[in-house]
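Tip: read the tokens left to right.
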């Protein structure tokens, strides 16, 4: 059994995961920057948390945990604010995808974890 980050190697799926992480992180940070002026604290706080999570995603650090946090925060934003919720739902879906797929090899998680392998041997050997 291999970790997801090591399974993809240096091929196109790993580059696709990097692109997915960069797009999601950029969207989270850009939306937070747009809300800097004229927003109240209860509207601005979840966006700041999501932008902080976007920084972790950008570098690929704790990717699965941060992807789940992004999904939870974005669903909170979608259902708690009086605006069109579809951008938040889309970002939540991308957060779930990143959490399930993992960081890929172009991340700090892959460098930190390395190649993991579990071998199950039959009894008696």
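Filled-in amino acids:
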């Amino acid at each position: 059994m291999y970790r997801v980050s090591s399974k993809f190697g240096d091929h196109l799926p790993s580059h696709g995961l990097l692109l997915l992480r960069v797009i999601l992180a950029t969207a989270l940070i850009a939306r937070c920057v747009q809300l800097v002026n004229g927003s109240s604290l209860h509207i601005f706080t979840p966006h700041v948390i999501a932008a902080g999570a976007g920084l972790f995603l950008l570098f690929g650090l704790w990717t699965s945990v941060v992807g789940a946090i992004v999904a939870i925060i974005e669903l909170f934003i979608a259902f708690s604010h009086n605006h069109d919720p579809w951008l938040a739902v889309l970002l939540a879906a991308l957060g779930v995808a990143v959490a399930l797929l993992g960081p890929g090899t172009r991340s700090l998680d892959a460098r930190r974890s390395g190649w993991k392998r579990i071998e199950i041997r039959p009894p008696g050997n």
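The helical segments are 4-7, 12-34, 41-59, 63-80, 86-101, 108-113. The domain at 4-113 is CATH 1.20.1270 (Substrate Binding Domain Of Dnak; Chain:A; Domain 2).
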